[in-house]
Give the backbone structure.
Amino acid sequence: RSLDGNDITQLAFGLRGGLYEVVLKTHEFRMVQGATVGDDEAAAYPSYSADGKSLIYAQLGYLWRQAQDGGIAEQLTDSDGYDFQPDVSPDGLYVVFARDGKDAIELHLLDLSTGDVVAITDGGGVNVEPRFSPDGMQLAWVSTRDNGRFQVYVGALENGKLQAQRLRTERRSRTPRYYYSEYDHELSPTWSPDGAELIFITNPETSYGTGGLWRAALSGHGGKAREHPGLPADTGENFGLGVAGYVLGHGESSVGPGALGVHAPLRYHFAVEVPELFKVPDILQQGRPALPRR
């Protein structure tokens, strides 16, 4: 989360049932909320408030707000569904989240000033991983709305509903897969700071695993992904897996190298270092029982 409008300064995450925070420059690590035993009780999906003074997160099927300086958590939602994956709007006025209503997972919008909740999708499919754009005018999310397969969508709210536009044309890989269908999936979208690009996970020509990180530029900061000359619409800049990734040059094949499960030559490559932000802190070693394994 950026607290000064520029560099990202701190990161909140769920770990072993609790909520934690790390300051990126100093590697200072602290617990925001203690861990609970049992997967169904675990706090997850933390999202910073606009002022950075509290975290909104999911636990026990509801949304909660916890001040950074401690205190009692405030329950924000209460329904027969299961609420998860909250994301706070840049102005701090709203929270978008997914609600599992048993027959579908739809996106909902919570007004933090009134507590009102409204559904903003109603297609009857699976709609998850919503993310506000940096200017708060659009959402990116993952949906099965068109064909039952997970793909990234972008849209703005009009008359209380999201106007969904698919990020890319659906693509079928030629490489045999062992765990997933022949169609490429798209997962976990996140916005670039200027709102001009989306970074997401996809798996073109990948035999094993969920794939790698890819980047797609949006036309006019609000339309479909721009196509690269000489490449199919489904290609872009690939960050790859592990500690190395690859960039596709114009006119090259859309398949990736060994890191993506195949071995096509590419013109350019670069190393992506993944720093170890911290070792397992002492706070996680203070005699708490191990979580049960399923």
